[in-house]
Structures are given as structure tokens and as C-alpha cells.
Amino acid sequence: MTRPLLCLHPTPPRQKEKKGSLLPQQMDVYPQELVIHEAPLVVVSGLAGRDRHSEIPPYPLLNSGPHVSSSLPALEDDTALRLVDCFQKHDATGLWGRRPPRDGKAPQLPVFRIRLVGREYWLPVRKANPPSPGASGSPTEGPPTRVLHSPISPLSPDSPLYPDGTVSHIWLRKHQSLLPAVFVSCHQLNTETSDAGLQAVEDNRMIEAINGVKKHFLSTSTGSLTAASAIGSEELRSSGHRTKFVAIIECERSVMTSAQIDDRLTYIRRGTGLITNTTFFVIQSNTSPVEQEQFVSSFLATIYPGAVEYYREMSKHSRRKRNKGSIPPPTIPSSRALSSQGWNLRYEFKLGVFAEFRQEMDVAGRNYETAYEKLLVEVFEATSSWTERWTEARMLADILAIRIVRCYLWVENYVAAKQRWSYHISRMKDVIDRRGKGSDTYGFAAWLSRWNKCLADLLHLANLPVFSVNISPVRTTGLLDAEPPTIYFRPDRVGERLISQELLHHPGFYYLAASEWTKIREARARRIDMDNKDLYDTYLCPPPHEEREFQHATLQMSYLALARTEFDLRKQERMVEAVSYQLAKLRMLKAPENPSFWVEALKDLRSIASRYRREGWWGLLEDVLWRIIECGRHAGDAGSIVLAEFELLCKPVFRQITSKKYDLGKCLEGVDTSNVKPTIVARASDVVNILSVSYSFEFPEVHAGQPVNSQLSITSNAHPSSAPLVFSELKITYEGGLKTILLRHDPSVTVDPSPSVRIISLQSSLHEFTEQDASGPLHSPTSIASHTHLVADTDLSIAPGQTKIYELSAILREAGTAKAICGTFGMVNDSFDLDFVVMFGEDEISSAVHPLPIKNINTTPNGGKGVWWKQDADGKITKRPLRSATESLTILPRPPKMEVFPRGLKHGVYTDEIVKIGLEVVNAEDEDAVVGVDVRILGWPTEEEPEITWLSPDGTALPPLPSLHPLGSLKPSEHTTQYFTFASPRIPAECTLSIKLRYTLISDRETTTEKVVSVDMPITAPFHITYDFSPRVHHGPWSDYFTIPSDASKPQGIVQRWCLTANVQGLTIDDITIEGWDLSLQAVAGAAECKISTQARKAITLSQNQTANIPFLLDIHKHTLEDRSPSNIDTTLQLRWCRQSTSQNTTTTTAAPVPRLFVPLREPRVLAEAKPSATIPGVIDLAYTVENPTNYFLTFALLMETNDAFAFSGQKQGSLQLLPVSRERIEYRIVPYQRNTWVRPQLRVVDRYFNKTLKTAPGLGCRGEKVGVGVWVPEEMLAVEEEAAAATEEKAKGERKEEDSDEDDADHEQDSGSSEDSLEYRRGSDEESEEADAEAGEAVQKEAEPKEEAPKGEAEEEQNPTQEKKEEAEETKEGEQ
User: Of these four, 241, 535, 589, 1123, which has the most CB atoms within 10 Å of its CB?
Assistant: First the structure.
């Protein structure tokens, strides 16, 4: 039994070495010690039981070495067992260690080879035993000088290297498994008793045990692991080794005993001379597993520098010995002593091994390369050919090459690694051809096979980043797919041209190469000449007589299995199938010895066949199918045999074998199917189909209720010598309204197979499935007949090269789409049941088979994929081309002849009204029809659907129905009108009225006909409303601080009047009448009360785009005089209107939201009012009201600007003083000079304290301007004589001169008069207030009248902004003067 090529297991079974030989007894392996990766050795003593301890490998004189022992028991508690698991988790034993990342970002993690031992341990001896007294180098010499060396040194007689050996794997075993860099002794502090005396006794026993173990290892005065100066001091060593000693103490701490435990640990540490956290470590037993894992990681990181320093000192020792240049004297002299070149080779190899222990792989690689060159140039050439030492040197060359390649792979120098691997092959081939038995032997082929597997194992176990493969079952998705796995490494160096053999590939290629060389080895082994057995190379392979009996196929199968796994991981599907094909053929070769190989080979061949079908490799597929038949017969797989026989019938694809009898029904003869009758289901897209099947509808579109004609065409492409195919049934499945058709084979209607093309009409034979059909046997177990099937009996046999066309017909009742999905061919006999599914219209892209080299007779010269077969009266069959998608059919609805007309939409639909619409339905069919109607309104602006109410002929509402509203039966040309109503929404919307008529004719009640009519029904607003909110003068008295209120419950603050004017513009098509309007108060914010008043209501008629003004007076009364906060008023305007075009006088109420009205702070303001004079014709009375609602005394400067457009009488300039919460009225009389125009009097009111000009707000009879207010002058006011106008002007000039001459006196008199006038104004009679309110009401009523076109003069004046600016500039200049 052979072991693996490379010993990858940490503890493989050991063998007893033969004295004087480096080769193990099993010749087909490399020694484990020579190939594994080096890592610092740590021996942990005193943990767990013997079953968890590491195996101690054999070593010469091991029991004679220093004995490290302790009388204390080993630790076997839970904490100790978890520590064992943690240490074993960090063990790096194997072909590869923990390779650090090359980016340099991550730190170097400590790498150790960890061995667990008990309380007894033997260190290897440093010197061999002296030879027997009678032994000597020469009989003529005197007593020899006894210089003792290592028991594995070439200088010791008992060494396997004596006298001329170079390197032994036993030396590597010594440093890998026996001589540690760090020795760890574990102990437990006794906390079971609280007696101080007993505790002191136990502590002294532990100190004695630790010191007893410590004496065998290196120690210094400080105990430091990194004290390199102490190395080499003989007085500090007892065993002669440089191993570091570390102690771990396990204890159980608690809050109560923590101080006592610390004292005891300090006592033990001082008694042993160790240093805390350097050579003396403490772990608590009551810690969690995570904390123990952290302790072990921290512990290993602490001792790692000392371990690396240990191997660095070993390297220095070897380098010093190499630099001496002399050969040490042997214990017993010999004439075949190792040469100086051999000693240099030993030192270079040791330096490389110690560098590898330190994880310095680049340094190790250089030492190995030097040793390799010395071996091949100096040692190899000086060694006798094909001796045992020559074979040892050859193995050492392999080991050095393996270690060099591993060093290059470690540093990611992949090109150099591949070149060194190939270089070793060429060097060994040259040496064997020159000095050996040649490279044409089976031994060299075996070595090449093993050498390829070595590289493959290295790459596989290394898991290099360049060849890493994501084997996660979850596939990540993104905008771009992940990069495919790397097949071979492409160097980034520019200008260096490398051939493919010099590039490093993934392991699969080298496993495949190992298989190929094993195949060559087998071929060479068959040519062995047993008479000349000494002419063959037996390096690491059996001798010739055993080689001929060697199971090469088994070894080749293992290599192919490994290669297939690697190719499969990298999605190299073609390589996977190629390797699987070789593996299947080998398994078939070995199947007579192992019958299970038939099943495994059949599984591989199925996968291979699917790939070859998809790629179109018909020659290879033919061989695979014959092999599937062979494997299926031995494995008892009837399904594989039937499908393979079915595919091999295809004449255009596969060759016809004359000795083969092609009969699908008898293909299972000789196969036992008596227990279970096989049932096979296959798809035509998964196999090579010998049938060309197409399905065609005659026309792409038909109407519901009309017959649908179709044809099913079947052509056989079987070999001419094959038996006809006889199907038991054929089931055609549809998608849509067509029923499934089931054709059954009837032998009594078998027709003559001589015509190559034959049309079989089944239009009259198809009938509904009946109970009589159900009483007959079902031919196929997968066929299920029901009342939804159409059944017919016909001939379903088809001869090779024959084409049969089956004509079918059906009637569709519903509109939609139909499609022929698939045809299922059922074949039932005594041996098997086969269901062969052919999908109609399946494209070549979705098929799993490459396009077959078959000419389809159902194609047309112009590229069409469907034809319609037709037979004329003479029996001649012709075909005409059809469209591309012949298996699809569109069933159009029956053409509706019913008409529907909506009534009542020409006047438009407006918001907030009840809409009544009538539907006039006319029956244009030739027969009676039962009609139902459904109405839906699409685009409704709210989530709630509108509630539609149908009306009876007398106008009453009908109860709602869940389905269509029935209109009853209508005779031909009869019409009826049905009304319905719904409430329109409150907001406008673009809606559509969808009317669906669904009716059935009396003659065909199964076919339903629909007609959908959509009518645009925009719902618009009847009005467009804008608002004007302006102040007005409230003529009632104000509250003051000097009057005691009679009713304290009423508001005591200032009352102000505002006017809200709604400008209503009609948007309706017809005239509408606004019957009434209201302004409802919703909310008042700001500690005030609001009273809304309006004049008597009078209906307003609006035409389209006509505007009417509706004013409302709002009196805002503050609660207190001290309240100066602004107020907000929320109101809603409600308009009641009706249409004039309709007979029904239905009133609709529209609620229009009003923007929030803002009443500003209590600040001084100026209000202007104007009206024609009632006493003097041609004169306008203009009044300014200056209000002071504040709590301060205010003084205002007044200035009336002169104007060329009018003359005025009144105060031109002066000052006005207002008490808190008071107001003053200033009156002017204006005589305009022009007619039909606007005059713009400008009264400047300036607050003297704040130097702020108050803006005049237009009141009744005024409009706002940029500066001041505007007053309209009507034409009838100008009936004044010119003389009177002139006199008025002279009077005005005299008054101006008088004011200019005595300005100070006038100001004083004006101030006094203002105060008196103010008091008189406030104390005015109620009659004057009522007259003012009446006048304001008349003005409001006039504003409510529809506006007419503005006078021409106003329009012209508005269009001349330059003249206005000029006038304003002149007035400003005069004011400044």
C-alpha cells in the first residue's frame, strides 16, 4: 500500500530506518521531514492526558539524552483542555505555514510548531556513544583518538550518514519534533485549602519542580529570553542546549483571595528566578474561552522574538563552522570520508533550514540554491552512478528543488518558481542521460509524474492569491460580474517574452500532466524486458517485476479526479469534460474488477454528452453514446439506453453501422426490466432529435366564433434501415382558449408508408372526450384525459424519411391569444414507457443542443419557419410559406355592432354640481341581443370612486347592482336611453367617461361581445375668483380712555373697517345666474371680533369671461385698547348659482376658499375718500382721515401738492397733532380741468418724530397709485362755466399767498382747529354716522354692478407710463422747494 506523494499529515506513521540508508522502506514517498515547512518548535508540558499528547518520533540514543521530568501531576481540568485546543489551533505543522500577506500592511503573526507532552520528556543527546574498545581506523595504528560527535553526524560510526553521507532527514526531525526553541512547563496553584502551612508546602513543591525542569535549559541571571549574550556560556547550561524555558501557572482568583494569591505567585516567581510576562505567566482558571484564546495569542507573541533569536544563534553557529574551512576529525577514520564540498553542502542546507525556521524565505531560498548547485556540480558528479549514495543525492536534489520552489512561491515570485521547477527537470534529465540509465525508462516517467504532482500539491495547499477561487454558494451581484479565476499567472514585466511553459498555471494542469506521465509510465512498463531488469531506473518506484503488476489506472484516476476538481472550480467546462471523458474510459476499463465503476462512468458520460451536444461535437458524441449504452447495460439503467438509442437513429448526425439493427422498441432486449418498468420523460431540446416537428395555424388572426384550422407536421430523420417509430399517443397542449387535443394510435387505420409526404385530415374526427373514451385503456401513464380534451384515433406510425401532416380544427368562443405549447409523443411497450416532449417555436438559443445539420422541410426559401401544406384534386401536395411565429394565434373579439351615444355633455361638467348624463343605446345587430352596460369615470381626483346612480324612467334612483346595469333585450334597430347621475368633485379634473357594453346574441349565448366607448369629460370650475382686501373708514365713534364702557362684555378696543371685494369671472360655456352669495367667517386670530356685512342681494347673470364684483364690509373690533397685535381672518365665499340653459332650475352651491386676510398692527394710517359734491356741480369732495390708534402723541406735517389737472380748496400745508387713540378728518374740494380722466391729488403726511411719510390708502371712490391716490372724473361733472372755474382758481391763488405770508400763525390756528374739529368729530351725532354708512352702502352697491369697459382716457393714460413719471418728478421737485 502506497503513501501519498508528499507527506502532508502532521503525524504520519513512522518507520524504522535502515542503517546506512536515507531511504524509507516504502519507496514511493519523500520523508515527511524533508518537505514540510519549518516553524519554531514549542514543547508544552503538563497539559491534558496522554491521549492528547503528540507522538515522539524515533531518534538515535533518545533515551540516553537529558531526562526532563516533574513529580507534579498534569493538568486535566476544563481550563487545561481549553488551553490545549487553543495551542493546537495555532499549530502550523504542514507543507505550508501561515504565509503573511505581501502588502506589508498586516503584521507578521507568530508561527509555531506546537507539541504537547507529559511530565517526562527526553532531549536528544549531543554526543554519540564511544565506539567499542577494539574498533580502530587501521590495524597498524595505535590507540585512536576518540573525538565524539552527534549520533547523526557523518563522523559517527553509528550514524546512517557514515562515512560519506550528506544530509539526513533525522537531523530535520531533531529540530522539527524533538529539540524545542521554547519549553513551556504548566502548573496549577493549589487553592483547595486555606491552611497557610499546606499552601506553603505546595508552593515549595512547585518551586522545586520548576527548578528541576529549568536546569536542563538555558538560563541567565535575569531570565530574559532575548539575552543573546548568555548563549555560549558553558557555566549556565546543564544539558548543552540553548532552549528557552517558560512557566505558566494556572490559579483561581477571587475578590477575597486576590492579595493572598499575588503574594504566593510572587514567592514562586522569586524562588524560580523567572520574570513576569517574560518567562513567568499566570492564567486564571475561571476565565471565558475568549479570554483564554487571547491569553494564548498574547503568550505566543511574547515568546516569538526569543524563539527567532534561538534559530538565529543556530545559524551563527553553523556559519562559523562553515567559515573554518576544515573538516572535523571523525571518531573512527575512514577512507571514504565526506569531502569538503559535501561539508559545505551540509552547512548551506542547515543555514537554509534555520532561515526557514525564522520565516526568512528569501534568505532560505538563496542558501538552498547554493546547496543545489554544490550538489549537482560537485557532489553529484563525484558520486558513483546508481549507488545508494547516488540515489540519496538524487532525492536531496528533489528536496532542495521543492524547497526553492516553495520559497519563490512564498514571496510570490511565480515566474522564478516555475522556471526553477522546469530547470530541475532539465538538469536531472541531463544527469540521468549522461550517467544514468536514460530518461526513456518507466522510472523516469514515474518521477516526472510525481514531480508534477509535487508542484500541484504545493499550489493547492498554498492557496496563493493569484489562484484563489471563491467557492461561496452565494453569488454576488452588481453592475459588473466578478473577474474570472486566473488560469495562469501573467507577469507585469514589459519586454520579457515568456513562453507558455515558463508561466505558472493552476494545480489542475499539473495534476493532468501527472496523469499523462502515469499513462506513459504504464506504456513503458508493458515493454519491460525481464531478462534485462538491471537496465531500468527504480528511483522511488517498484522494481520491474512489480511494476508490470502495478495498478497504473488507479493512480491515473486519482490524478484525473484532482485535476477535474481544479478545472471545475475555475469554470473551465471544456477541460472538465475532457478530463471526465478520460476518467470514464479508465473506470470502464477497471469496471470488471469493480462493478460500481459502471455507475460512476455512466454519470460522467451523461455530463460529457450534454456538453458535446451543446458544442456540436458529433463525432465525439457518437462514441460517448455507444459507451453510455454499454455502461447502461451493465449498470441496469434502461433510461440511458433508450435515449442513447433514440439519438443514434439520427441519420444526418451519426454514422449508420451496418451490423447494428436499429429498432427503438427492442433496444432493451437483454436488460432485466421485470421488477420495475422504466418510465422515461425527455425533452427534444435536451437530446439529438430525429423528429422534425412544427405546428402552424393557417391565419394569424381569427374572430371569436369562427373555426380555427391548424396543421401538425412530423418528419422522421432516422436511418433508412431502422424500424418505423410507432407512437401510442400524441398530446398537443395549448395556451389560451384552445382545448388539448389527444391523438391515439389505432392499428386498424394504418396507411401505406410508401408516400414520403401524406396529409391526414382529422377535422371531422375530433370530438369531445366522452365516458366511452374513458372506458378504454390509457396508453401512457402520463396522459390524463378529461372533458376538456378533444380526442381522435389515427395512425401515429412514421417510417424513416416520411412526413405526415395532421389537419386539425376547433372553434374559439372567447377573445384573447392562443399558442401551441408542446407536443408529447408517448411510446408504450412491454419494456418501457417513453414520453418525448417537443416544444413548438423553441429557438436555438434556449436549446441545449447545437443546431443539427438537418434540412427542415418546414422552412421556406425566403427564411420563413412555417409552411401550409395543401393537396389539390389531383393528389399533388404543395406548400406555401407562412409567417415566422406560426404556433401563435390572436383571437379577435366578435365585431360589435351595438352603438352607444352619451347625452348631456355638450354644456360641460362643472365642480360641485349633480351631473345627469343619458346613454342612448342602438342595436345594430341583425338579431335580438341581451345588453348590459357599465360606466366608469377614469381620472377621478380623489381616492374615493364616484357613486353612480342609475335612474328609472320616472326619475327615481334605482338600487345599485354589483355587476352590469341591465338594459334588457333589444330588438334589431331598437334604441333605448338610460340616465344616471353622479356628484362632481370639488376640484377640477381631466376625467374620461368609459362606457362598456356587453351583450350576447340570442342565437349564440356562449359568446360574449363587448364594446368600449371612451368620451372625454373634463370637469372644470365655473368661476375664476380673485380678491381685493383694502381698508375703509369706519364712521362710528372710537373708544377712548376717558369714557367708562356701559357694557363690559363688548369689545372695548378700536374698530376698523375693511372691504373684501370678490372679482368673480364666469368660465362657463352658457350663461349662469348667481342667485346669492355669503362670506362665512371661519376663524379670527388676534384677540378681535369680526362683523361681516353686505348690501341686499340681487341676482347677477354672468356670461363667459364676464366679471362681477361682490364687496363685503368687515368690521374688526379689538377686545382692548392696549392690544396692538395683528389679526388673521379665515373666511369662505359661498356662491349659489344655476344654469340658464337647462330646463331644471337646480341651484348649486360652490364654496370658494378665500386666502387668509391679514389685518396689520395698530399703526398710524391715512385713508382717502372721494365722491361728487352734492351741492356744487363739477366739484369732487375729497376727504383724508388720519388715524392714530397708538398710545403716543403724534405730530404730522401736512402738504397738499399742487397739480395742473385740477384746482382744490382746503389746507395746503400745516401740521396736525393727534392724541392717543384719536383720528382727524381733513376735507378738500377738487375742481378738475379735464373730463373722463383720473386726477391724482397727493397729500403728504409725515410723522415729524420718526420722519416717516405715511402712505395714503385708497378708500371709497379712490384707487391706489404709486404716489397718492387716483380719483376718477366723470364727464357729467364738467357742466361748469368757465368763469366759475376762473374765479375758483383766483381764490385758490389768494389763499396760497395768504398762507405763505403768515405761516406761523396759520400753523398755530390749524393745530387748535384740528383739536377742536377732532373732538367735534368724535362727538358727532348718530344721524351723521348713519348718513355716512348709507353713502358707503350706495357705493358698495355700485361696486357690485358688473364692470364696464374702462374709459378711453383711462386706457390711454395707463399706456403712457413716461408721462406719469414726468409728472411725478415735477411734483416731487415742487414739494422739495
Answer: 241
